[in-house]
Amino acid sequence: MNDLRAVLWIARKDLLQEARSKAVTVATVFFSAVTLGVLAFAFGQNPDLMRTGAMGALWVALAFAGVISAAQSWQADLEDGALEALLGWPLPRAAVYVGKLLANWLLMAALGVLLLPIAGGLYGADLGPSAGWLVGIVVAGTLGFALIAVFYAGLTANLRARESLLPVLMFPVVVPILLAAVRASGAIVGSDDLELAAAWLRLLVGFDLVYAVVCTTLFRFVVEA
Amino acid sequence: MTDATAPLRRPRWMTIYWVAVGPMFAIAAYLGLVASPRDVNQGDLIRIMYAHVSVAWIGFVAVGLTALFGALYLWRGKRGDDVRSAASAEMGLLFSALTIVGGMTYSKPTLNTFWTWDAKLTLTAIMVALMVGYFVVRGLIDDPVRRGRVSAVVAIVAAASLPFNYLAAEWFRTLHPAKSVALDGSGVTMDGTMLGVLLFTTVVAGLIYLGFMLERVRLGRIEAELEEARTRGAVRTVAPEGVVRV
Questions:
Q1: Cβ contact (<8 Å) for A203 and B164?
Q2: Is B149 on the interface with A (CB under 8 A)?
Q3: Is the CB of A207 inside 8 Å of chain B's CB atoms?
Q4: Distance of alpha carbon B169 from alpha carbon B138, whole angstroms
Q5: Considering its fold, how many domains does chain A have in total?
Q6: What is the ipTM of this complex?
Q7: Quick check: A199 contacting B, CB < 8 Å?
Q8: Helices in chain B by DSSP H: which ranges?
Q9: Which tens digits make up the pLDDT trace of B64-116?
């Protein structure tokens, strides 16, 4: 019970820090909007390509923004020995991880839901009658993404070359999650194929469960102040 | 005083091991290239399958063992487990890269494409990227204990995607053929001779993996010992007198 409270406090701390600095929100919202714009330029004049690529573009934008968000959540704690103090707490280190994970997940899921109509409008893709499913896919997809991103950001937090190392390490792990999320949301937007979307969503939730267990268990070996 | 040069000497049985594996490799090549019957649909192309599938299976085993030795290291903290984990990772990287090369060779004449973004192919490509990431991390950490822990964690996370790789072919079958050997024993949809040949080539691939493991672990032990001696300051990093520097 105590651990659960600690998790919530750490999540609250990160969210409060974010609410005051708005560093991550500003960076991720603008960066993902720019990514969507750049990809829209790249897809060019082909409306069919735009429509089919809409959900892919959305997840690429979310993924790039997610790297910034996860890295920043540890970066802030590296200053003034805050991380040492945090890890010095008589708490399982997994609690620190889960707290940071919750804060990151919340920010990313909110960003994803915000980007859904933007991507739909920008790419001329009708989100379709089952748009509610898309929110569920964004929630499951960003959970999987945040699980890996926060884990690896903690791992690289005090390594040399962490900025370049984080994407190199985490993207191969995250690709199956992105693939499942892109396919699931593509099945909704493109063809309103709920059966196909459910199959991919099942894979997505499976990944979430496996990585939730693996990352939480292994986290205590990962961080070092 | 123990003999400090003992681990430097390569035991003779390692040579004997390779001398024994060599003829088995030749037999496997003979079985696959000559003795195996031609496939009804694929003709002689089925012979690529023996190399491709056996290498792929051993590649998965190698990545799995990397994670297993990593987990042992996290549990017991013995340096030897880290050495074994890293050795197996090198084999895992090599075998999964070979799986992709073999798969492309096999798929071009049979399926008329080198590559397709099928779930199983994608995840095998990801496996290669994961193992590369494993070595990038290893190279960046100087402290042996932290390096061992972090790379063990990276290996375990990489291996966690293996079951999905296996299932993905079932759930989202596109171009990649379904498995002909079901692990639950429910059915082998493969000619008996062909299955026998495949199992033999797999055993030989496993023996080659084991041989490289033994060699690499021996080298890894020497590396670890040298690293520890350097940290203690017991080994001079400058050349002794009389050594001519060029």
A1: yes
A2: yes
A3: yes
A4: 31
A5: 1
A6: 0.83
A7: yes
A8: 12-30, 46-76, 79-111, 119-140, 144-160, 162-171, 192-232
A9: 999 999 999 999 989 999 999 999 999 999 999 999 998 888 888 888 888 87
